[in-house]
Sequence to fold (431 residues):
Amino acid sequence: MQKTVVILLMAMTAATGSFARQNQYRKIKSAAEQIRDIHPAADRSDLYLPLLKGKRIAVFANHTSTIGTQNLVDSLHKLGVDIKVVFGPEHGFRGTADAGEKVGNYTDAATGIPVVSLYGSKRRPSKEDLRGVDLMLFDIQDVGTRFYTYISSLEEYMAAAFENKIPLIILDRPNPNGFYVDGPVLDTTYRSFVGMQRVPIVYGMTIGEYARMVAGEKWIKEASVRGGVVTEILDTWHDLGMITKKATPYRMIIVPCNGYDHSKKYVLPVKPSPNLPDIQSIYCYPSTCFFEGTVLSEGRGTPKPFQLFGHPSLPNSLQSFTPRGVPGATNPKLKDQLCYGWEINGTPGEVLHQIDGKIQLKWLLEAYKLFPKKDSFFLTNGSFFNKLAGNSQLQQQIKEGKTEAEIRASWEPALSRFKTIRKKYLIYADF
Fold:
């Protein structure tokens, strides 16, 4: 695959500057940023804009869908692209809603474009939502973790495209946790919006690669059409000419990132959701999101969500903190209660060292061991914890006092089978 000319990532606003400063010297371009590439050596321009011109577009986007400091939708709107409807995921199109908060439909004040929420009871665009749409576009920043709901939103959006025979373009973005694969593979008995497919918790794929896998493995029935879904990777102007000549309604075009591979540690230019405020939280998230299925605070309502976790009944010799109501976590678990627990602290490199390229269970196992009322450790009889884990086995192993090594051994051979499937759909060099 040809490599395009790369540029330095632009510095973000003060609100997101900590992300940008850590990443400004990493020469990686998201697909969205390649809307215009007029460097003479590239011998081309407007990598994907010609695919949008003259079409009536539906866009799935949120606040992470950026070109420099501007939202993709705002940029396309100013370029005259005819956007008929915008769809928003969890946290809403502009990214301000709390986790799990239901967001209604509205008209975007900045553009006048209708916005339809696809988080809550409605997860998929309806035929009516897509009436008159010629092309569907997807651009969301993922964090590479199964229970982060954006890949579930992606799957539903893909299904709607295939159902309605509307071509789909996916603008790819790097995966900040794309440098390893780990965790239990989902048992489909526990399928939910926080885990829909037979993948481990950390799957080591970008949004574009994940979409290729879902379609290629026919994991959604809508991808099982006669002849299958034609998946194309747009990398050069020549590719664009070939793609525009093809005519099939079951088409998925992936515009890849430039300068990215799975060995690189990519730092997001904006926080992907209110409770992942920095790259340290993103690195911790695959290991500490389990606490959302327990009575312990996972750190929402503190400056360090998913880096702080604890409970009032744990030993007071541990790290102390008090969750407060804050924007993005207005009513956090154990609000205004003094908690004792653990903090994963340090620079991004120091946190990476503690994570050590795998899901860490030591904090979860130690919390259960020290918690005095073990019968009440798991919320809702453990049902939500099982959805996060993707099975009921992990909860039972914790109760039985299994070691981390014993638990990790039980993830095989399913984990190795997934790794074999994954490699078939990679777009970028692997770690």
User: Anything to note?
Assistant: The CA atoms of residues 263 and 431 lie 4 Å apart.
